[in-house]
């Protein structure tokens, strides 16, 4: 391999390593692993807020208590996002996720679609529900159960 080819190959590899990763809304959630500061408290959650929450759950190494605060099932349900994070299904560099519409909204219930993809597999779409509990929007346990079934994870759905 010529030195020009080696340099070109190195440049491509470096650009892949340092390429920016899109975040739903940096102002909403610049550091997903920040100590328990993340909470969706708006009357109607935005797609950017829901997307940031899902990224916090499945694409960040946030501590268990931070993840538990985002889940209707609390600490009992943390096993699901922890496993998805460890396997790396839906986080860079080989996967991604984004929350999109259509959305529905009621005072204490909101739905949207989680689109999750990983290299070499079709995009998985899960209609997800969030519940407003003590003024915070949390991912509903039934949505975690739907995700477990859709992905085929060996986790019992016993945190509802």
From TrEMBL:
- Identify the stretch annotated as signal peptide in this record: 1-24
Q: Does the keyword Signal apply?
A: yes
| Record's keyword annotation contains Signal | yes
What sequence ranges are listed for the domain Low molecular weight antigen MTB12-like C-terminal? 44-153
InterPro entries in the cross-refs: Mtb12-like_C (IPR058644)
A Pfam family the protein falls into: Mtb12_C
Provide this UniProt record's keywords sorted from A to Z: Signal
Top-level division of the source organism's lineage: Bacteria
**What family does the Swiss-Prot or TrEMBL record give for this protein?**
Belongs to the MTB12 family.
How is this protein named in the record?
Answer: Low molecular weight antigen MTB12-like C-terminal domain-containing protein
């Amino acid at each position: 391999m010529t030195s020009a080819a080696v340099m070109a190959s190195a440049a491509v590899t470096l650009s892949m390593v340092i390429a920016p990763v899109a975040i739903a809304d940096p102002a909403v959630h610049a550091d997903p692993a920040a100590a328990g500061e993340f909470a969706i408290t708006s009357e109607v959650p935005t797609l950017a807020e829901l997307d940031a929450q899902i990224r916090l759950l499945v694409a960040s190494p946030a501590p268990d208590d931070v993840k538990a605060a985002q889940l209707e099932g609390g600490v009992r349900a943390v096993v699901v996002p922890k496993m998805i994070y460890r396997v790396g299904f839906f986080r860079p560099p080989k996967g991604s996720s984004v929350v999109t519409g259509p959305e529905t909204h009621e005072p204490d219930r909101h739905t949207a679609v989680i689109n999750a993809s990983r290299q070499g597999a079709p995009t998985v779409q899960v209609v997800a529900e969030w519940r407003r509990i003590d003024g915070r929007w949390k991912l509903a346990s039934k949505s975690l159960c739907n995700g477990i079934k859709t992905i085929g994870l060996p986790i019992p759905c016993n945190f509802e």
